[in-house]
Amino acid sequence: MKLKLNLLIGLFILSTTGLKAQTTTPAFTASHLKAAEQYLIATGISAQFGEVISKMVNSSSAQIPEEHRASYLKVMEVFMGKYYTWDVLKDSFTKIYAAEFTEDELKQLTAFYNTPLGKKVGSKTPVLMQKGIEIGQQTITAHRPELEQMMKEAFQNDDPPAVKEKGN
């Protein structure tokens, strides 16, 4: 049971951390970072961030045993409210986008997201993400026995960690 809970928490963390940390931080101009922030605001992410995170946590809670679900939700609400909000992560997100797009490209994207079609794309993105999450959950649920067997076999084949002797 504890292994299942740890596995589910691990899967949640992996599902939310697809980005690799950069070993060097590129230097950006203030206007480039501002363009990235304006783009993110135009996409609606700043306004929808909390809702998306809440849906993601609620979706992941379906995999938690009923007797632990309320505690899981409380813990995740506190944790996410502390570390995973738009205000906390905004600077990191702007740097990610600034690294991938030039300042001019960000301004063009912002212009698009301020059009009626761009606003529609921005408003539909959370819905589409939620539907994508649901497809993923349905796929895992449909093949859960196979996944559990694969995990069981993988854990059985893992070598136990070496015990270090004192002085080493």
Query: Quick check: average pLDDT?
Result: 83
Shape: elongated
**Uncertain runs:** 1-7
Q: Percent of residues in helical segments?
A: over 70%
How much of the sequence lies in strands comes to under 5%
Distance between the termini: 35 Å
Q: For the CA atoms, what is the radius of gyration?
A: 20 Å
The total strand number stands at: 0
Sheet/helix structural class: mainly alpha
Largest sheet composition: none
Q: How many separate helices?
A: 8
Order of helices and strands: HHHHHHHH
Walk me through this protein's architecture.
It is a single chain. This protein is mostly helical. It has a domain at 27-141. Helix content is 78%, strand content 0%. It has 8 helices and no strands. The chain has helices spanning 2-16, 30-43, 45-61, 66-83, 86-100, 103-113, 116-142, 144-157. Helix 2 (30-43) packs across helix 5 (86-100). The chain is elongated and about 50 Å long. The two termini are 35 Å apart. The relative contact order is 0.13. The model is unreliable at 1-7 (pLDDT under 50).
Main traits of this protein?
168 residues, mainly alpha, elongated
What is the topology?
Blueprint: H1 2-16, H2 30-43, H3 45-61, H4 66-83, H5 86-100, H6 103-113, H7 116-142, H8 144-157
Q: What's this model, at a glance?
A:
The chain is mainly α and 168 residues long. The chain has helices at 2-16, 30-43, 45-61, 66-83, 86-100, 103-113, 116-142, 144-157. The chain contains eight helices and no strands.
